[in-house]
Every structure is written in structure tokens, then in C-alpha cells.
Design brief:
Layout: H1 6-24, H2 27-44, H3 49-76, H4 85-88, E1 92-100, E2 103-108, E3 111-117, E4 129-136, E5 139-142
Parallel strand pairs: 3-5
Antiparallel strand pairs: 1-2, 1-4, 2-3, 4-5
């Protein structure tokens, strides 16, 4: 055990911290692993154990203090690119067959959709422009 350099032990520790990172998907383990790699680098330059531990602690704490809040802020943000039916909400469509509370047809995003009016007492005649407020199954709800 005494024949193995300290930097090897730091790399073994980094690899050991990588295992729970993969298993639990907790990024803090990855930040600690990077701290261990930093300590291995410091050890490789010949510094003593105290400097190695300080390098490990400084790098690990700095990463957790800086990267973790940034990652948390980004994970709370909604994607700016709407896809699927979310991308169709708010779009304008043209009425192809009279649309009322029970049904009709519209042309939405180049495709023909079944549609019904949000207000069941309202009707939209052929050629009218309507706004899509929701999609229920394969039916666009329009106003």
C-alpha cells in the first residue's frame, strides 16, 4: 500500500465517486469526483497531503456552491421551443366547414383538423379565421 503514489488513490477515489453518480444521478458526486481529480493533479506535482486535501475541498465546495444553483435554476425553466400540440395552441386557422359547438373542419398548420367552438352557441362560417385555444384528442377547440 505504501508503494502506491497518492495521486493513484485520488483517482481511485474519483472513480469510486463516479459510481454513485451514475447509479443515483446525483451531480454532487460528480463534483466531488472532480475535486478528487484536482487533488490527484496537486499530488502529481509533489505537494503534501494537507495541500491535496485542501485542493479537494476547495474544488468540491466551489463546484457545489457555483454549479449546483445554476443547474437548479436551469432545471426549473420550461423549454422555449413548444412542440406537438403545445405548438398549435394560440395559432390561427381557417374554417373549411362551418364550425359550431358540435363540430366542423379547419385548416391548421397546413393540415385539416376537426374542430369545435369553445362557446357552444357560437358559429364560424367558411373562410373565417379562428384562434386555437386547446387541442382535445384530434379536435381543435377554437374561438
Amino acid at each position: 500500500m505504501n508503494d502506491i503514489d497518492a495521486w493513484v488513490w485520488w483517482l481511485v477515489g474519483a472513480a469510486a465517486l463516479g459510481i454513485p453518480l451514475v447509479v443515483t444521478a446525483m451531480p454532487e458526486f460528480g463534483m466531488l469526483a472532480v475535486g478528487a481529480v484536482a487533488a490527484a493533479v496537486v499530488s502529481g506535482f509533489g505537494f503534501d497531503v494537507v495541500v491535496q486535501v485542501i485542493a479537494f475541498l476547495v474544488v468540491s465546495v466551489a463546484l457545489i456552491a457555483v454549479v449546483r444553483p445554476v443547474a437548479a435554476r436551469h432545471s426549473r425553466q420550461r423549454p422555449q421551443l413548444a412542440t406537438g400540440i403545445d405548438a398549435l395552441k394560440g395559432k390561427q386557422a381557417v374554417v373549411l366547414e362551418r364550425v359550431d359547438g358540435s363540430g366542423g373542419r379547419i385548416k391548421l398548420a397546413g393540415e385539416i383538423w376537426s374542430a369545435r367552438a369553445l362557446d357552444t352557441g357560437r358559429t364560424y362560417d367558411v373562410g373565417a379565421e379562428v384562434d386555437v385555444v386547446d387541442i382535445e384528442g384530434a379536435t381543435a377547440i377554437v374561438i
